[in-house]
Amino acid sequence: EFPGGNIGHLAVHGSVNDVAVSGGRPLWLSLAMIVEEGLEMGLLRRIMDSVRTAADACGVKVATGDTKVVGKGQCDGLYLNTAAIGEALEGFSLSADSIREGDKILVSGTIGDHGMAVLSVRENIRITNGPLSDSGPVHRLVLAAQAHAAGVRFMRDPTRGGLASVLNEAISGRPVGIVLKETNIPFSAGSKAVAELLGLDLLHSACEGRVVMVCAPDVAGRILSLWRALPEGSGCACIGEVVRDRGRVILETGTGGRRIVDLPRGELLPRIC
Q1: Given a cut of 80, is residue 272 above it in pLDDT?
Q2: Could you give phi then psi for residue 189, rounded to 5 degrees?
């Protein structure tokens, strides 16, 4: 459990969002559990209730699954494994190869909240109004953007490795780069405080309820308007654009400097997705 949710919400949202950002409508979910002997039943009930609540909110059915119990010490409490199946939405033709100079980079909300929320619990960092996980579904954001699907080049949910990983992987080996404007990137105050306290880069921190989109400039404003009409898209922003370069992501800082946004190095924390 973590501020803003628990592993039950996360298991549903993770698989549902993978289907959604692939241009699909999630419909069914499998759920497999590995439970450690001695896990508190009250905790297990809370997590299963969260699975049901999240699945209902996403409009998906948990259609199949399995449960295994292992001996004490053989599992870190509880593992959930999910996979989602859906149907393709008409109009989307998503590929990083279609990204071109002048395209805009959109995000649907604040960046890095899930990673900072989990890290705060693990490291016992207690601050007033601390970070809350952004764990949530993104399928309605994708459905809203379907009206402009022809102008959408690429979508991803920035989980492992955060925004930095998604953008670097999108342009790797291609004759384009990305310039981000730091002042346009939405960060929550709680996550920013923890990141500054620990010397971490929020661009490397995981999200579990956000969409990163690369789209044609003529549809960017319309998509943002549609997103802002949804609760999960109220904090959306255009944070940069695609430029002619050699596969680099550059951040224009709030003080007027420029730095390279590289792939995360070393161990990525926290790992709960």
Answers
A1: no
A2: -65, -40
Which is nearest to 189 in space by CA: 256, 123, 112, 257?
112
CA distance 183 to 259: 14
Residue that has been written with the tokens 């999910």 in this structure: 82
Instruction: Give the confidence band of 129 by pLDDT, cuts at 50, 70, 90.
Output: confident
From the list 140, 270, 137, the residue with the least C-alpha distance to 209 is: 137
pLDDT at 76 over 60: yes
How far from 107 is each of 49, 71, 169, 269, CA to CA, in Å? 30, 43, 16, 22
Which pLDDT does position 271 carry in this prediction? Answer: 60
| Per-residue three-class SS string for 196-246 | HHHCCCHHHCCCCCCCEEEECHHHHHHHHHHHHCCHHHCCCEEEEEEEECC
Reported as half-sphere exposure (CB side, CA atoms, 13 A), residue 196 has a value of 9
pTM above 0.70, yes or no: yes
Given CA atoms 263, 100, 104, 243 in this order, what sign does their dihedral have? positive
pLDDT of residue 127: 82
Helix intervals (H) in the chain: 7-20, 41-58, 113-122, 139-145, 162-171, 189-198, 217-228
Which 3 state secondary structure label does DSSP give 161? Answer: coil
C-beta neighbour count of 137 within 10 angstroms: 23
Q: 149: how many CB neighbours lie within 10 A of its CB?
A: 17
- 249: pLDDT strictly greater than 80: yes
Query: Tens of pLDDT along 152-194?
Result: 999 999 998 999 999 999 999 999 999 999 999 999 999 999 9
